[in-house]
Amino acid sequence: MSAQRAASLQALMWPAVLFVFLMVVFPFGFAFWLSLHDYKIGQAIRFTGLENFLLIWRDELFWNGFRLTLQLYGLSLVLQLVLGVALGLLLNRIQRMRSLVRTLMVSPFMLPPVVIGMMAIVILDPGMGVVNHLLKSVHLPTSLFLASTEGVIYTIVFIDTWQWTPFVALIVLGGLQALPQRIYEAAAIDGARGWRELVYITLPMLGPTILTAAVLRSVDLLRFFDVIYITTQGGPGYASTTLNIYAYKKAFDFADVGYASALMITLSTIVFAAVLVFSQFRKKLSW
Amino acid sequence: MRANLKCLAVAMAMVCCAIPTMAQSFNWKKHDGQTINLLLNNHPWSQAIKEMSGEFTNKTGIKLRVEIFNEEQYRARLNTVLQAKSSDVDVYMSLKFREGTMYSKAGWYADLTPLLNNPASTSPDFRYTDFGEGLRNAETINGKLVGLPINLEGPLFYWNKDIFSRCNVAEPMFLEDLPDTAAKLKACQAKGDATVWAARGIRGAIAYAVSAFIYNSGGDFASPNGKPNLCAPNSIKGAEMYANLLRDYGPPGAANHTFTQVIEMLGQGKLAMTHESSNEFSNIMKFTGREKDIGIKVLPKGKATGISKPIVFGWGVSVSGYSTKKEPAWYFLQWATSADMQSRLVRRGVAPPRSSVFNGPDFKSWTGELPIRQAWANSLIEISKTGTAISYPPTERVVEAREMLGGAVQKIFLGQANAKDAMCQLDADLAKLQ
User: If you measure CA to CA, which chain A residue comes closest to B84?
Assistant: First the structure.
């Protein structure tokens, strides 16, 4: 490569480097710097080293938020992957009105979170909501849904699964249509059909696609905030105060910016770790 | 010749005197062509201001760019803008008892004192002392004027007279009557599907409504030596009554309710009693028939204590410390809080903080048109005389403390702790905030 070409390639790279620096490195670095300080609005900023992280270790609400975040993440991810793959397989078989079905499937995750949250509040209201009304009409027990300390996290899992399963299904559908037909033909000659074909051919070959969907959903689920905030603001009690909600309240309601930054750095580390684990899996599953 | 010289001298003296006078005269059109940005909380006042903003532009030539958000989003946006020391926001609403000290220390309020004292910046008919003394003091921090009052508000006791009448239940005269009244209403078939009691159950909103229960029961937020006092028997009693009413007579899902759900139920005629904001009066009146069947008064006093100590405060409107258009912003503040504007805002349910408006003929004639308006005005007069803005324990971290109080009350009505344990744990946690 000539020196001139190398120089021009380097020049082309700089805007991207600058963008990443401004949008990723600087905010993250600044948040880390804040996390090392006692910074409350209206008070002098004071360097405290790792004290905020030590406080986190002893903070009951952090551990409550950590548990809820993992619970929400684990349940939603498993449900969305299982249902998403099933839906993707089903869609792959649909021959008529395929584009209409796909358009309908896109609609839940195209809706703004505010709309989803408001819909959930109205539909799931324990007193006036249509769901309890329907349950009553068929003599089934009603539920407090978002107002139940035990049930709120499952209700949020349900809302998120309803919204994002079609997204996973569309990724899976794309993966299915890219699978080489010759393998299926060879398998058919060997007598592999139906369930066996699914378990021994389709799913293993879909592995990387499913993992891609898992990574995308993981990042989203671990930073899940909007629908929870709109529907419950972290309540009732602290039953839906995930780490994001907790950090938000610390920063914006209680003006404790240093501590909130430490919480966010901790959560970011968890997200990075999850992405790293999935990318290692992906390498192993590549074919 | 001598006479001419005298005339000349007099004329020159007049011109000399006139020059400083002209320099000091107030001119509404001084900032013609400028634009100021307003960030406002969703409130009857801000909605009215947005609709009337054209009048301000006609009067001053200053254009207003108004953004209104619900309170949570409003505070998040405001905090972000002010933390960034941005001049994007010139004017914003602020509750001084809640965030005044913190914002002031952070330099987020412009000092309006020099503008108020400058005749060139302040309209001669502004009459600052027309605002009640308590409200003026609330808007003054460390000797600096940091805002102007825009309203007067506090939680009031609302009850549906029609439901009470159908059930043949008398209105409660004392705080201690509330549980008995609620029990009678619950047992009454004639109330139909109406809910007996509703109030704020969401953690961050409870302090506003529970405080008068604590005071009227003989409790207090602080002990005489300035320590948190919510573990005192009477404080526990008040908080427990509030929690038990929600638990035993409240709607399902009350833990996620704030004023929006409560007012919706009351407005639809599906609620017998509540303790909600005086601000919501105009929203309640938008529902057909409520002007006839709703009763309004201050939360009944404690029977055992004889205490009636309601919560009262006012929102203020402030200029950002980072605004580059402080004087045009001050012009807006003067216009928006003028006696003329306040007289008109009354009709939108904004209780006026100016004495001349509160006692003026317009307000009196408007309240005289309907008994319910009179009851609302009487309640406001009462809370302005007997009320307090202190609905939080002794700490500078007011928001956190109020949220902790809400958390303790939630624990009681969700059955996660008994009242004594919840409130005594709260006291211990609050002591760490001090």
Answer: A41
pLDDT at A76 over 90: yes
Amino acid, single-letter form, for residue B178: L
Q: What is the CA radius of gyration of chain B?
A: 25
Confidence bin at B18 (pLDDT 50/70/90): very low
For residue A14, the distance in angstroms to the closest alpha carbon of chain B comes to 27
Beta bridge partners of B64: B36
Instruction: Say if the Cβ atoms of B255 and A147 lie within 8 Å.
Output: yes
Most confident of A34-43, A82-91, B211-220, B340-349: B211-220
Mean pLDDT of B8-27: 54
Mean pLDDT of A108-123: 90
B101 CB neighbours in chain A (<8 A) are 42
Q: Render A62-83 in DSSP notation, one character per residue.
A: HHHHHHHHHHHHHHHHHHHHHH
Nearest-CA distance A53 → chain B (Å) = 19
CB A39 within 8 A of CB A45: yes
Q: What is the pLDDT of residues A132-160, one digit of tens each?
A: 999 999 999 999 999 999 999 999 999 99
Minimum-distance CB partner of A237 among B195, B396, B411 = B411
**What does the alpha-carbon distance between residue B6 and residue B254 come to, in Å, rounded to a whole number?**
84
Helix, strand or coil, per DSSP, at residue B319? strand
Instruction: For residue A226, give the chain B residue with the closest CA.
Output: B73
The CATH code belonging to domain A60-285 is 1.10.3720.10
Residues in Cβ contact with A53 at an 8 Å cutoff, skipping those fewer than 6 apart:
A35, A262, A266
Are A233 and B105 inside 8 Å of each other by CB? no
Element (H or E) spanning B64, and its range?
Answer: strand B63-69
Which one, of A32, A34, A37, lies nearest residue A48 by Cα?
A: A37
Enumerate the residues of chain B whose CB falls inside 8 A of the CB of residue A229. 72
Domains and CATH numbers, chain B: 35-152+313-371 (3.40.190.10), 155-312+381-433 (3.40.190.10)
Could you tell me how many CB contacts below 8 A there are between chain A and chain B?
A: 84
DSSP structure string for A106-160:
HHHHHS-HHHHHHHHHHHT-TTT-HHHHHHHHTTPPP--GGG-TTTHHHHHHHHH
Please tell me which residue of chain A has the smallest CA distance to B408: A237
Dihedral sign, Cα of residue B352, residue B354, residue B357, residue B360: positive
- Any idea where the domains of chain A sit in the sequence? 60-285
Using CB atoms, pick whichever of A229, A232, A248 lies closest to residue B256. A232
pLDDT band at B275 (very low <50, low <70, confident <90, very high): very high
Q: Which one of B80, B204, B252 has the shortest CB-CB distance to A127?
A: B252
Please, which pLDDT band fits residue B338 given cuts at 50, 70 and 90?
very high
The confidence band for A1, taking pLDDT boundaries of 50, 70 and 90, is: low
Residues of chain B positioned with their CB less than 8 A from the CB of A125: 253
Confidence of residue B115 (pLDDT cuts 50, 70, 90): very high
Going by the DSSP 8-state scheme, the letter that residue B321 receives in this structure is: T
Report the residue from A42, A127, A238 with minimal CB separation from B251: A127
Which tens digit of pLDDT belongs to each residue from B382-416? 998 888 888 888 888 888 999 999 999 999 999 99
Name the pLDDT band for B23 (thresholds 50, 70, 90). very low
Rounded CA-CA distance B36/B57 in Å is 11
Look at B414 and A149 and tell me if their CB atoms are within 8 Å. Answer: yes
